[in-house]
């Protein structure tokens, strides 16, 4: 399953199908990818469009760097999942960002292109939140040196928001600001809230079989195994009520977006599917007790981009946390027609938020 639920799960089932489908020998998407590649090509004199493999925590990992002006502030996108890489989807929404930021997509250890660069059995013991946080810090240091920057922006999405927020806690000196999207605050409580919301929606819809299936997962998430199987078990129903993408209960086409990605070959897409399965199975039991509820002060500005109906990683938890947080600057921006994926659900409004409420922090330097 290509678990693009960004923290979870069932969207994954659909994605895995898309990622690992048997390729047609003549690759009918090749011509379309070339058209998109040319349309999105950076042609400005000071632009940057690069792919690299970098060593982070002793493990080779793939990054993609794009921007119309290499002097623009850097925005590091930390993808969700675990294992739900954003690089093969970025062509569909990111190009306008690149007029204002140098955007870095990073396939984390065990995920996407990076999956094929290491022995999964060797890196599995290293896959902890602290290690991903430190990988991100090492990457920021490399980017600072390469582009001559003192600070960067970090945007953490879903699982990646736990990584990004951990960076903001440990190394606020590296950041202009931290941006959270699909922000994880407390994993167990998020699962409780998401399950309760899904039961409520199913009850309203008269789908009592859905209700029974979700209730049968208990005592999860309170006790017992905390695995991706349980997480998938309720999200497969939540998606039909719009928990992942609002008003789109059927997401097969969305998960086929990577077929047109100039950054991902058919072989990369296979690695994406395998890496997603590996990452979610390995990491999900380790996230059970991650909580930021006691982190009530940060030394960097914080901007939250929250989908109103996001119950994949419930937005109300992040909004409540933001009310209690003390920071040099904080702002919560709601996307009324979005769930977990505002960048693809309301791309214009996300761009506007980045221009109006994020980029000015770099202009103050």
The share of residues in extended strands comes to: 5-15%
Distinct helical segment count: 14
Uncertain residue segments: 1-24
Terminal Cα separation, in Å?
Answer: 43 Å
- Whole-angstrom Rg: 19 Å
Helix content percent band:
25-40%
Q: What structural class is derived from the secondary structure elements? A: alpha/beta
SSE run: HHEEEEHHHEHEHHHHEHEHHH
Oligomer: single chain
CATH architecture: 3-Layer(aba) Sandwich
Structurally, the number of domains stands at 1
CATH class: Alpha Beta
Q: Total strand count, please?
A: 8
CATH topology: Rossmann fold
Task: Walk me through this protein's architecture.
This protein is α/β, with parallel strands linked by helices. The chain has a single domain, classed as Rossmann fold, CATH 3.40.50. Helix content is 39%, strand content 15%. It contains 14 helices and eight strands. The chain has an eight-stranded mixed beta sheet, with helices on both faces. A hairpin with a 2-residue loop joins strand 1 and strand 2. The radius of gyration is 19 Å and the shape is globular.
Indicate the topology.
Layout: H1 11-20, H2 30-39, E1 48-56, E2 59-67, E3 74-78, E4 102-107, H3 112-115, H4 120-123, H5 129-147, E5 152-157, H6 159-170, E6 175-181, H7 187-204, H8 208-215, H9 228-238, H10 266-283, E7 302-307, H11 315-324, E8 330-335, H12 342-345, H13 347-358, H14 360-363
Parallel strand pairs: 3-4, 3-5, 5-6, 6-7, 7-8
Antiparallel strand pairs: 1-2, 2-4
Helix pairs in contact: 1-10, 5-6, 7-8, 7-9
């Amino acid at each position: 399953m290509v678990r693009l639920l960004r923290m979870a799960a069932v969207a994954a089932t659909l994605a895995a199908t898309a990622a690992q489908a048997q390729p047609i020998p003549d690759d009918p998407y090749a011509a379309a990818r070339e058209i998109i590649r040319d349309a999105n090509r950076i042609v400005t004199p000071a632009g940057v469009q690069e792919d690299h493999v970098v060593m982070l925590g002793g493990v080779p990992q793939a990054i993609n760097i794009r921007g119309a002006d290499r002097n623009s502030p850097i925005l590091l996108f930390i993808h969700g999942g675990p294992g739900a890489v954003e690089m093969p989807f970025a062509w569909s929404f990111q190009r306008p960002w690149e007029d204002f930021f140098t955007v870095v997509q990073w396939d984390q250890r065990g995920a996407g292109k990076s999956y094929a660069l290491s022995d999964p059995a060797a890196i599995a013991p290293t896959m902890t939140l602290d290690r991903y946080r430190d990988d991100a810090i090492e990457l920021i240091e490399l980017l600072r040196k390469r582009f001559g920057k003192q600070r960067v922006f970090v945007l953490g999405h879903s699982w990646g928001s736990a990584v990004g927020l951990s960076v903001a806690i440990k190394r606020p000196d590296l950041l202009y600001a931290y941006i959270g999207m699909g922000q994880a605050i407390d994993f167990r409580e998020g699962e409780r809230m998401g399950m309760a919301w899904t039961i409520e929606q199913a009850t309203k819809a008269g789908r009592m079989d859905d209700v029974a299936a979700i209730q049968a997962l208990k005592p999860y998430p309170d006790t017992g195994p905390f695995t991706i199987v349980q997480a998938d078990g309720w999200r497969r129903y939540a998606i039909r009520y719009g928990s992942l993408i609002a008003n789109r209960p059927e997401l097969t086409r969305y998960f086929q977006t990577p077929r047109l990605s100039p950054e991902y070959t058919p072989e990369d897409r296979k690695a994406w599917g395998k890496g997603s399965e590996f990452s979610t199975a390995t990491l999900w039991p380790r996230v059970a007790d991650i909580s930021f509820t006691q982190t009530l002060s940060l030394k960097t500005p914080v901007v939250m981009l929250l989908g109103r109906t996001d119950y994949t990683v419930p937005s109300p938890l992040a909004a409540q946390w933001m009310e209690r947080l003390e920071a040099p600057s904080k702002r919560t921006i709601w996307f009324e027609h979005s769930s977990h994926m505002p960048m693809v659900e309301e791309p214009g409004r996300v761009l506007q938020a980045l221009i109006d409420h994020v980029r000015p922090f770099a202009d103050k330097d």
